[in-house]
Amino acid sequence: MRHDAETAAAVMREAGMEPLEPYPGTAFPWKSRCTKCASIVSPRLGSLTGLSRRPARKRCADRATGEAQRHDEDLAVVEMRVHGFEPQEPYRGVKYPWRCLCHGCGTITSPTFGSILAGQSGCRACADLRAGAARREDPERAAASMREADLEPLEPYRTGSIRGGGAGRCGRCAEGRRRRRSLDFLKLLREEAPEARWPGIDTAIVNALLDAADADTGFRRHNLLTRAATVARDRGLSELRACAEMALQQTDPDSLGWIRLRRQLILPPGLIAGARAHIDAAADLTDALWRTTLDVHPVMREDSDDAHPLDGLLRIPRTRINTAGPIQVAPPVEADDDQVVGLQVRAMDVVGLLAAEQIDRVYERFEPDEAELIGALVHDAVLPLPRARILADAFGYFWLDELDAAVCIALPQVEQILRQLLRPRVPIVSVAKGQSPGTVAQMGALIRSMPAAGYPRDWSRALELLLVDSDRGMNLRNDVCHGLVDTPPKHRVALILQAALYLLSYAHGQRSPAAAAP
Question: How many Å is the Cα radius of gyration of the chain?
Fold first, then answer.
């Protein structure tokens, strides 16, 4: 639809824009000033009219939407009290943890207001008590069940054990039997006994471990259950293995008795100033984006002077817990040294803090609108227009501090960019064979294929630690996409955006890969 200059200007003013130059046409950027925030932007008139109209100033529209959806603090406090919570700190927003006193059990808990509105209980202790009450067996019925099995109870019925057990007297032999065996004795017995007796002894060993776990708490209980599940698996005792693993996965991670050690990374002001100055030296927006990455990853740089920086130091074996289980995690035998990898992950956090400063500085200096950002990112083969718009949205959400949206949008684009870069250089598909269907390489396989395709090994390892290393890395792709973590901190989201820019720099000719391995 064609507009004359006066009509077009009226449409812009109605949308909150004051034109700063003559009308260029419906499909062309029109430099204007936002009357709400005074920012200089260049929306197209066509995007403000028709069926696909969009707000002229996305940032202002997002702020307005957020303000419209924000709950009044007084109403939020009343709602929390109705649900049995007394807030202990000011209301920050619907998605932020809100420290409250639970009137049900008297403990301090931190539910989000959104989870309360969604119908969740908000208090883990109260939820556990309700779940326990729902599963609790009536004492008289439990005693009757024991007598039906020819067992006479010798103590009051108690709940909470793995198999609901308790001491009892066998009615068949009229004498008390203790269910707990000496584990060392059973191991010695198995060494001396003929092979035909091993299944029975193995069953007794697993039962002894389960009984010991019943009587213990904290990490010792978790360790006994892990040993029981391991022995049952190795000895082919599938039912006992299922019993132990069910008990493991029902363990509350907070009951393991661990101490969480957290240290805030505080960088020297000079280091931050240098990172921001590097962006200030950029000629334009595109140059600034490429400046957030380096040819050689600073964490993975190989240096002969520090090839063995930890030689001679005391090494203490460590056990990691994956809290999604919770389950003990052991790294592969051929894995790199734990301490070295731990230092690399810590150093990547430092790189992430600097990357976040630089990406923020890009916005502060250029204030790019959607069209300008898409223009800097788009590439016909690797990142076509629809996907460039999605990645641009990820940057926009990052600058709005909507980190959960930024990370969820950016991660699939990183995988797609890498897949398109590798497509002409190494195989990324495998054909069907027998009952195995044809497959397309996923993130982990793509990253490990980078050196063969001529891309630097240091960046391949850095991306592996960042996205897919579940043993000791950040594992952000798997943890975020499978819902195993809450919103990552800002500096780790910045590392994901930095990864997208690094890979895109090859598509745009800023860097060139080496020759692919034959």
Answer: 30
Q: For residue 219, report the phi and psi dihedrals to the nearest 5 degrees.
A: -70, -30
- Cis check for the bond before 326: say yes or no (omega within 30 of 0): yes
Query: Does 132 score more than 90 pLDDT?
Result: no
CA distances from 241 to 53, 217, 223, 229 (A): 59, 20, 14, 5
Please state the φ and ψ torsions of residue 451, each to the nearest 5 degrees: -60, -40
Residue 238 belongs to a domain: yes
Last residue of one domain, picked from the residues 68, 99, 116: 68
Name residue 85's beta-bridge partners. 102
E-strand ranges in 356-515 read 429-430, 439-440
CB 320 within 8 A of CB 222: no
One domain for residues 77 and 55: no
Instruction: Give the C-alpha separation, 477 to 461, whole Å.
Output: 15
Residues 6 or more apart whose CB falls under 8 angstroms from that of 326 comprise 222, 248, 249, 251, 253, 256
Determine the structural domain holding residue 380 and report its residue range.
269-304+319-507
Whether residue 156 is contained in a domain is answered as no
Count of the separate structural domains present in the chain: 4
Backbone angles phi, psi at 379, to 5 degrees: -150, 130
The mean of the pLDDT values for the chain is 81
Q: 508: which residues sit within 8 A by CB, 6+ positions away? A: 286, 290, 379
Same domain, 334 and 469: yes
Q: Which long-range contacts (CB under 8 A, 24 or more apart) does 187-196 make?
A: none
Q: Say yes or no: 237 and 284 in one domain.
A: no
CB 491 within 8 A of CB 356: yes
Clarify whether residues 399 and 464 are in a common domain: yes
pLDDT value for 160? 46
Per-residue pLDDT tens digits for 273-330: 999 999 999 999 999 999 999 888 888 765 444 444 444 444 445 556 666 566 666 6
Residues 6+ apart with CB under 8 A from 354: 267, 271, 272, 275
Determine the pLDDT at residue 59: 64
Q: Do 250 and 283 belong together in one domain?
A: no
Q: DSSP states of 396-424 as a string?
A: HHHHTT-HHHHHHHHHHHHHHHHHHHHTT
- CA 40 – CA 82 distance, rounded (Å): 46
Q: Which residues 6+ apart lie within 8 Å of 201 measured at CB?
A: 186, 189, 190, 193
Report the C-alpha gap between 66 and 68 in whole angstroms.
5
For residues 147, 148, 150, 153, the Cα torsion angle rounded to the nearest 10 degrees is -20
Domain identity same for 363 and 450:
yes
- Structural domain contains residue 146: no
- Tell me the three state secondary structure of residue 485: coil
300 and 203 both lie in a single domain: no
Do 45 and 90 share a domain, yes or no?
A: no
Does residue 314 belong to any structural domain of this protein?
A: no
